Structure formats: structure tokens, C-alpha cells
Sequence to fold (522 residues):
Amino acid sequence: MSLKASSREIGGVTVIDLDGRITLGDGSALLRDLIHENLDHGRKKLLLNLAGVSYLDSTGLGELVSGYRYAKSQGGELKLLNLSKKVSDLLQITKLYAVFDIHNDETQAVMSF
Amino acid sequence: MSLKASSREIGGVTVIDLDGRITLGDGSALLRDLIHENLDHGRKKLLLNLAGVSYLDSTGLGELVSGYRYAKSQGGELKLLNLSKKVSDLLQITKLYAVFDIHNDETQAVMSF
Amino acid sequence: MSSKPQRVEVVLETLLDSIALAEEVGVRLAEAAGFGEDDQYKIGLAVHEGVMNAFQYGNEQKREKKIHVIFELAHDKMVIHVTDQGTGFRLEDVPDPCKDENMLVDSGRGVLLMKAFMDEFSVLAGQGGGAEVIMAKRYRAPAGSPAM
Amino acid sequence: MSSKPQRVEVVLETLLDSIALAEEVGVRLAEAAGFGEDDQYKIGLAVHEGVMNAFQYGNEQKREKKIHVIFELAHDKMVIHVTDQGTGFRLEDVPDPCKDENMLVDSGRGVLLMKAFMDEFSVLAGQGGGAEVIMAKRYRAPAGSPAM
Ligand SMILES: Nc1ncnc2c1ncn2[C@@H]1O[C@H](COP(=O)(O)OP(=O)(O)O)[C@@H](O)[C@H]1O
Ligand SMILES: Nc1ncnc2c1ncn2[C@@H]1O[C@H](COP(=O)(O)OP(=O)(O)O)[C@@H](O)[C@H]1O
Fold:
């Protein structure tokens, strides 16, 4: 079970719905490509919907951080939506919870940009 | 997932519904006990309903044969009902298909005793 | 990108649970090798029977003896070695359970199933004197395509 | 009847798929040891991170190098050894990814997760000079009963 991704536009924000695993060789490269592609095409408000992401390893965490950094460097923003318990725990342990802007409500998340 | 078994009486025949795996350490001992218990209590017409048995190893096959033999030795009979494709293939390969009286219809199976 | 393991070795104790564990690893690797579900099941059952024999006959249920399972994904087939620390056996000495006089004995069907479910099957004397069962299943070439 | 494997050894090639395979065996054995689902996941992820590091840093993705994983079910804990054929590393040299200046680097979180998810974590020099990561998780005693 690898990663599936699809994108939508809402009020100028690009919501990327992710479903599956984000691990080395199984999703992490796809996630990086997606983030870069969007930013390189001028879509600078990115909201990653992680509702369907049940499993993340340190590579996946690293990819989130790297996407966050790249967004900033391009004058954009990357935010997170709908963390599962597991993903939320991983962000807590690694203290990344304090780095990201994290939302549970899509409408509010979109308005926060 | 080990073996579950329950028994019913229909027209003097004891139908034993089996569900799960019959392998060494995972069902084969239970099956033997069940067959012996019934025969030792005078229930001599045994119909094993294998509809729920998805996996059988050579120990399970040996247990069927040994039950068949024990039934005969007690003046009883052991027949088989509702073989899955996998179980049916195993009986074909081992030529046991020709040894057992095998049925697909419960009513007909009960009447065949 | 081919990231299929070419060789996985598993060393197990002589315990009931080792049978299912080896089987699961076998199914997992058969899947990685591209075998369909039916072949995965057959490979799994062959591993199950091979390890069960190592458990029962080879190592005689002595927990501290080891069962050594090697899975190899060769270019044309998956090869499985099951080696125990018993005293070995010869295939010629195994009675044919399909012969009329053996039809009703409880045992003798493990070797038969391994032979039926795999394309190759042989028994050698392992390095330590135990049995080494070697079995292989060829990859199925999808119709009209060259063998993988 | 206790039929839990006490020790399972797995030898893997340096391949992506070996990470998931080792993880699956780890989860399977954690389950056999009686760990609940949450602990099974944590043990699995720790194995994943350990083998991933052996794959990337230790064996530098050189396929022919081996990754050696040993699972031991001791009486009070599950112990896991991951050994590679690299040049080893020292825990003191791993930067703390939670420090402010490291918060935004991509890497350094594998060791952190292994430490967080397991009860014990250490790194030794393996026999061949590579890293040997040793981690352990204690069995949880059900409330009111003696430890298993
Ligand atoms: N690993 C082994 N070591 C020693 N003897 C073995 C081994 N595997 C099989 N055998 C011998 O071969 C016989 C046939 O084995 P098998 O076909 O698996 O049937 P079963 O296990 O039902 O007896 C066994 O009864 C045993 O004598
Ligand atoms: N098996 C290993 N062999 C050599 N060095 C290692 C090994 N495992 C970890 N390291 C070193 O420890 C560092 C931290 O690893 P880790 O916390 O897993 O984070 P990451 O993998 O994200 O860099 C690595 O960058 C590497 O330098």
C-alpha cells in the first residue's frame, strides 16, 4: 500500500489529499515532487490533508519539514490538516508540532492562509 | 485464527461445523477430540461441514483420515460436506477424494447415512 | 527499480510458532517476487510442510535445535532451503501415501504436497548432517511476454 | 504450553524491501510476545528505523552487504539487534533534532523515534566493525498480575 495523492483548489489554497504511507521509497519521493511542483507553478498556499495517512517514518517526517522549508523559501506556506493519532504523536515526539500550523477543520484551515 | 467448532443434530446425524484452520497445533487436536468424543458417546453418524475451513495442512489431512478410520472401527461413518476449492484440491492431490464420501448439499448428505 | 530481496535467511527455534512464521515470510517474499495469490498459498504451504517436518522429525521438537530457512529469488525461480539439525532422511524411504496400502495411514502427505505445489523438490544431507529440503517454484511468464 | 519463539534471526540484503520485511517480522513477533497493537506498531516502527539506517548509512545502499536482525523474547522484554556492515557510529555524534537550531533539518529523527518508542536503546560496534543497534521493550504486566 503506497501513497495516493490528489489535489483540489479552495479559495486560492491548494489542498493535497494524501492517502497511504509516507516512508522511504513508498511515498516520500511522491510527496516531495508534489510539493515542489505546486510551489514551482506559483501555487504557494499548500494544505496537506493527512487524514488518510496511517503511517509515517522519519523519512516522511523529514519530507514534511523539507516541504515546509521550501514553501517558506518560495514565499509560500505549507500547513497540515487532519492528523491521525499516530501522526500527531510522531509530531509531538519530534517537537515538530510546534513548527507546523496544524488544523482539524478544513474551512478554518483554508481561511487561516 | 484457530479452529472453531459447533455441533448440531439432524435426523440422527451429527453435523460438526468447522471454521478456521486445521493445522498442527492449530485445530488438529481439537478436531481429533471432537470426533472421538462423539463416537465414544454413541453418535456414530458424523458429517464434517468444512465450509469455513480455508486452510488445511498434512496434519489436518491426517486427522481427517484418522477420524475416518476411527469411525469405521466403531461401526460408524464420517463424511465430508462443503469443501472449499483449496481443501478439495488437497484431497485430490492426496487421492483422499476417492476415500471419503463427499457432499455439497447438507440434506442429501444427511440422507446418505 | 528492482528492490526485491534476492536472498533472505531466517534462523528459527524448534517451536510450533516457527512454522507459521516461516510460512508468512515465504508468502511475503512470494508476493514480492510477483507470484499470484494461488501460488503464494502453495509456496506458503510448502514452507509450512518443510518447516513442520524439520520441527517434528528432524529436530524432534527439541527447542534449542535450529531450523534454518533460506529464500532465494533467482532470475527464473524462487528457491527455498529448509535445513534442520536432525539426522536426515532419504526420499526413497518415504512411503508413497497414494498407494492403496498406504491410503489410510495418517502420515506421509507432507512430502507429497511439497512436490505437488512446487516445481522442484529434493532432499540433501545438510552441512551438519540434518536434512536439507530444497524446493523451487518457477515464475510464471505472463502470456505473450518474455519470462521475468 | 509456551510456543513463543525465543530467538529469531533474519539476514537481509541491503534493499528497500528489506526494511518492510524486517518490520513485518518484528510486528509478528511482538504480537506473539503478547504486546498490544499500539506497542506492536511502535516496535515495528523502531525496527523500520533501525533497518533503514543500516540500509542508508551503514551499508550505504550496497546491495551485497548484509543486514542482520535478531529478535529475542527474553523473560521480561523483547530485544532487537540490528547489525550492518558499515563503519559504525556513536550516539554522541548524532545531533539532537529537537534543539532549536536543528528543528528544520531533514534528518536526525530516526534515532529519536527509536528511543521514544522503545524502553532501551544503545549502539555498539558490531563484530564486523559496523553498527549494532540494540533496543528493547519491556512486556507490560496486566494490572494486578505478576509480570509475564
Ligand atoms: N526433516 C526430516 N528429518 C527426518 N525425517 C524426515 C524429515 N522430513 C520428513 N521425514 C521423513 O519422511 C516421512 C514423510 O514425511 P511427510 O511426507 O512430511 O509426512 P508426515 O509428516 O505426514 O509423516 C516422515 O514420516 C519422516 O520419516
Ligand atoms: N547504521 C548506521 N551506520 C552509520 N551511521 C548511522 C547509522 N545509523 C545512524 N547513523 C548516523 O546517525 C545519524 C542520525 O540518524 P537518524 O536519527 O536515524 O536520522 P536520519 O536517518 O534522519 O538522519 C545519521 O544521519 C547517521 O549519521
